[in-house]
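New to this. Please check this protein:
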Amino acid sequence: MLVVSDIHLNHVEDNRSQLLLHLLEGASRSEVEYLVLMGDIFDFCLGSHPYFQRKFDSIGKALEKVVQSGTQVIYLEGNHEFKLASLPWKGVQIISEGTHVIHLKSGETIQMAHGDLIYSHNMYRAFRRLVKSPLVTGVARLLPGAWMDNLATKGSEVSRAQDQYRQIEHEKILGAVDAWLEAGPGDFGIFGHFHVPYAEPRRDRKKGGLFSVECWDRPNVLAFKDGRFHRYYFDSKAADAETWQPAEPLVRKLLPGE
């Protein structure tokens, strides 16, 4: 099982896109049970608009090739993505909302969601529902794609410029994710959105854990193998810089009472 999230692609010619295409080519030649895209793979994409269908056609073809190799490809729509189910990508399973659960052949159950659906403020959730509504996305489909693309890209750049000033509320995030995992059937819970590489034991001390996928400011893959999650960091400039690392606890080093 391979998982990527929060790549925030702008152009199919840039380094991030080329790294993703390299990863997908490798996945299509390997025995991978699941490839999961946890959302915000694109910095902005309206899947029902012909402009974005053309712009990201190479990514779609690469994902279709992974599907043809026998891997199940699951794409959870992020907050930067809209109407992805309208993309003409054969065999790619699009999850527009909510939590999705898979059962690995090795026996583990994994539940997953884009992180903003697990922890966010009420005003944000209302805004998310509005911009993803059929009315707004329907009107957006009538607008020039290049204009929307440019506007959304500039908005994302302004938002990311504020990231260094934002305080990450680890305990609140993990508390919400704990409750989400405990309410579901998963042994493991994985999520994206926060750009933080969480790897925490379960609060209820059951088998499994909580894992989030780091953003592609440092290109990486989260992989489940041999009963645990590992992170794979890679560099487009130096093949010998590619490394596998165990996904270790980031915040919750030890549970209370241990």
In short: The two ends are 31 Å apart (CA to CA). The chain has seven helices and 14 strands. The longest strand covers residues 220-225.
